[in-house]
Amino acid sequence: MEKLSNPQVTIEIIKKYNFAFQKRFGQNFLIDGHVIEKIIKAADIGKEDVVLEIGPGIGTMTQYLAEAAGKVYAVEIDKNLLPILADTLSEYDNVEVINEDILKLDIEELVKEEKGNLKVVANLPYYITTPIIMGLLENHIPAKSITVMVQKEVAERIKAGPGSKDYGALSLAVQYYAEPYIAANVPPNCFMPRPNVGSAVIRLTNWDNPPVSVRDEKLMFKLIRASFNQRRKTLQNGINNSPELSFTKEQVAEALIKLGKNENIRGEALTLSEFAKLSDLL
Ligand code: SAM
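Output (structure tokens, whole complex):
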């Protein structure tokens, strides 16, 4: 079968199965082979790798993944896509399609017998990008890396550092678990149907050990959320107003001074390592 990255082949399959795109599942299928090749290259997929693909759609990227990897698990929520995937992936015997919601699937259980390196690769459904990425990271899925297509704006937020307007709780949360690298920007015309926003491919390489040490990880993340909840407020006020926390303004000010910071500083000026130190001081 000719590859689905040829838009004509995609159109034929959509017609053959009378497939109706579901907006609620974030279905924007790739129709550009060069973009898929860039994703496979950024993810550095080889025969020794086991790939978890989230949302294979009609199997466009899965065809490339099956050729590059040792084994592919493709988890798709939309059961209407199953007969299509059986057709478009019929040439590949190393792909297992699983009809599940990725947010409910026990990934560790799924891959527990696998010996190769696990790598996650996906053109993510944009309506649940953050829960998927944070779920994979916080649950310590045994993956070497996560290479995903996301909204350009989300990729910029993930990658941002202190002082940037995009820097926030998402940047800090992801960077605690992994090192982000933006591999490509992808315009709307590479998808069918076209999304309203620009996209980017981001690779997250999981750290073997967290880049900072902190006594209470949960407290640090509560402090981070509180600091960015009210962006224009000082960190002292943000933490003091948080329903999740019970520190007084004086306690926060004292900790900030010990950190060598001005007590009126805002959250966006602190690095991950400073949040870790602030958490330990409090
Ligand atoms: N990988 C295909 C491609 O690049 O052409 C499709 C990508 S499309 C942006 C996202 C895919 O994720 C859709 O096939 C959609 O049905 C699927 N999806 C949406 N929510 C899902 C979920 N919770 N679990 C698994 N798959 C999901």
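The CA atoms of residues 78 and 232 lie 41 Å apart.
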